[in-house]
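**Protein fold record**
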Amino acid sequence: MKTTIYTFALIGIAFFTSCEDYLDKQQDFEGLDESDVFEDIRLAKSALDAAYSYLITDVSATGQGGDWLPNMTMAGEGYPGRLWQTFPQTYPMYAQGDYISLINEKPYNDNGTAVGSTPNFTFRYFDSWKGIRVVNTFLANVGNINNGTEEEIEGLKGQAYFLRAFFYHLLTKRHGGLLYLKENLQLDETLNQERESYQSNLANMLEDLDQATSFLPVTWDSENVGRPTKGAAMALKSRLTLFAASPLVNESGDQQAWVDAATAASELINYANDNGLYTLIDASAASTIDVDHNGDDLFLMETEELEPYRSIFIGPGIQKTIPSEVIFSEVNQKFFVFGSILSPTPRHTLTAGWDHLRGNGSPMSIGALANFVDKFETKDGLAITDDANYNPQEPFINRDPRFYNAILFDGVTDLIVDPNAWNLTGVVDLAQVNEEGKLGLNLHDPGGNANLFWRVRNLTGLRIKKWLPNGARWSGAGGRNHHVNNNIFRMSEVYLNYAEAANEAYGPNGTVPGSSLTALQAINMIRNRVGMPNVNAIYTGSKDLLRERIRNERAIELCFEGIRYDDIRRWKIAHLEENKKVEFLEMRWQGGESAIYPTGFSFENVEQDQLTKTFDDKHYWWPIPNSEVEAVPTFKQTEGW
């Protein structure tokens, strides 16, 4: 547990650490020093490619391990349903605000015994520094390449600047200002560095992204699809400037920060339009799905009208199809290969409910929280508290079409209707007490079976559907037949960034110089493309009113994509009771349909007091590992920790 290695000092380790495996296969290069190796374009490219292995985004997992405490749990979007191994120990540490234990490699008890596995946000800290080391080594030696074209070298430099900014983005959005290294530390260098401010790190990230934008291509050839482009660099700039303009960082409320964020988003929107890139997928026909009481489409797993929108996230076949609105996504191409999942394993597959897959011997699940699901409007474009037609005793009908893409609820046709599947009910049964007077919960009775399926329960009364390919199997016949897109940036986020920043800088109907798009029009574009009406007039009369609907729109459009946790932090609302509480949907059979209970079931959001999170001011910025401060006391711990 105790370690004296100063993590960012790892950046000073010799170049050969990151590409030694490759060089072992190149006997002709044995004995060459670092500068000699970089004379060859192939080796230089291979060296830089090593940085991608350290890139653990918010939709990533290391190796084949899951993200033991994913953003969707931390953001109050869901709650883990795995009843063994790590979740029972790790969730309380987060909920009680014990970030020190979480960040120090593994959660430990008072006796020094590990009680859980290393969460991905801990790997993200250490591996980001390693990735920075690789990038800095490359940039220090790129001038030695003597057999590459200008276009090839510029493409590599663009990737390097993008990656360095991205690694620092992953570090600083959690921990605040650190030390922005553009050159690697030397092993014999005195370690007495001090932490810099977030604003200082931000300036360097933006400088790197401007460099990346100047070097990166508009698109890559087929061999290099998946590498960052100009659009990806601009999307990261949009995300960074929005974060910096928000109350967490922008404590004085400086309007220029909002102008900068609105401008960054506007520049990407104009760039995309000028180049015919990143067009929003049209699923406006979803307005016609029949999801009224016992509607023909209400309990279907998938409907034709929603398929275009659903294809942004999942699709048939093992080869990814990159949707038109995706700007940057993880590059792994296949999911089901020889009965297992390729590394890096997507976070979604391990946490969003893949316990239903036949043959899965290590199942997990995240159930959606009832209080989060209440954010989905009705199909008439009103919050459920504002729509007189909404009946809390029939909560699944006539909701925003995105509800039926994201949420799996009781009665939906089962994902796998297969005589050999674990669940033989044919429908998803999430009731506390169902028609037969039994627990639903979609459980498989273990009956002495050693398989671990029974150890996953849906406790929340709702499941996450957004990342579940219909009919997918873990292995065997019919397996290896679906893909999931691990989208890092997509255009809908950029329009929402624009709407938020433009509203703060210019009001609901103002526009950014050089653009004719208002904040209100931008948010309506996101709504209209899934068949939702424009934002209702009762929410558009002021900057303050529209701000709340923009925030709600982000919650719905970007749900379960690893974004909301950073949103509620940057808005400085994570400490509010509404974002700390955990509510499950309890659904109980009442004996038959009636005027009070149209489905025969009662529905009630029940607060789980024992799961309420602790969140104080200090929790807005995460601590750094204790080993950092022990090794270099001048590199101080995050304030409050």
Summary: The longest strand covers residues 583-589. The CA atoms of residues 51 and 134 lie 6 Å apart. The two ends are 19 Å apart (CA to CA). Residues 1-30, 333-353, 421-425 have pLDDT under 50 and may be disordered.
